[in-house]
Specification:
This protein is α/β, with parallel strands linked by helices and 207 residues long. Helices cover 37% and strands 27% of the residues. α3 links the parallel β2 (57-63) and β3. The longest helix is centred in the last third of the chain and has 17 residues, at 144-160. It is globular and about 45 Å long. The protein starts with a helix and ends with a strand.
Length: 207
């Protein structure tokens, strides 16, 4: 039953949930900052593609292991004026050369990667000196009452949300991978349940 759900239902659920107006507004704040040769980890259904600044983009590698979600992305890929190449692998396996990427983009991705330490190490490896990691992620809330709910709901949310974790401490994960966060903003995004709506966004460089 979960196989049917994961293949036929979950890709559309993710596309809809990650494409709401509040979430799209968040994407609009961070995606245009990406430039050069870009690696988007967890490109999913291509929801970020309309927000790139075409004048700043050389190309985009889109890392996404789900064929079913990549199929949903097809129309968005065809609508942009720059080259998008999919990589059919998870975040822990990035088949790009060392120091070959100017920007790594992460939006609502770290919550689902099983081994975040390995994945962030790979992102660090492929990032050029002077390049940056741009991120916009949901995660652990600062309010104790909300965090308690995140911890309670996480095992169930994880099963129906394609491995999504509600309670990951995003800045801590990024710093532990050897990145230095230059800018960090946080807030609950509107019209989103608090347990799933606390966002961290900003950028980081190799420390």
């Amino acid at each position: 039953m979960m196989g049917i759900y994961d293949k036929y239902i979950l890709p559309h659920v993710i596309n809809l949930a990650c494409g709401t107006k509040p979430v799209s507004w968040q994407r609009k704040q961070v995606v245009p900052q990406a430039s050069g040769r870009i690696l988007e980890v967890g490109i999913g259904s291509g929801l970020n593609l309309p927000f790139y600044d075409p004048d700043k983009v050389d190309m985009v590698w889109g890392l996404e292991p789900s064929l079913d979600i990549r199929r949903i992305a097809k129309k968005r890929v065809e609508a942009v004026p720059f080259d998008v190449q999919f990589i059919d692998l998870p975040g822990e396996e990035i088949p790009l050369d060392d120091k070959s990427v100017v920007t790594v983009l992460l939006t609502y991705t770290l919550c689902t990667i099983p081994d975040t330490v390995a994945a962030l190490a790979q992102m660090r490896r492929v990032l050029k000196p002077g390049g940056k990691l741009i991120f916009c992620e949901h995660g652990a809330a600062p309010d104790e009452s909300v965090r308690r709910w995140q911890n309670r709901l996480n095992p169930y949310w994880n099963k129906i949300g394609g491995g999504c974790h509600l309670n990951r401490e995003i800045p801590k994960l990024i710093k532990e991978a050897g990145f230095k966060i230059r800018e960090l903003q946080t807030n609950y995004i509107p019209k989103t349940p608090k347990f799933a709506g606390f966002n961290y966004w900003g950028d980081a460089i190799i420390d």
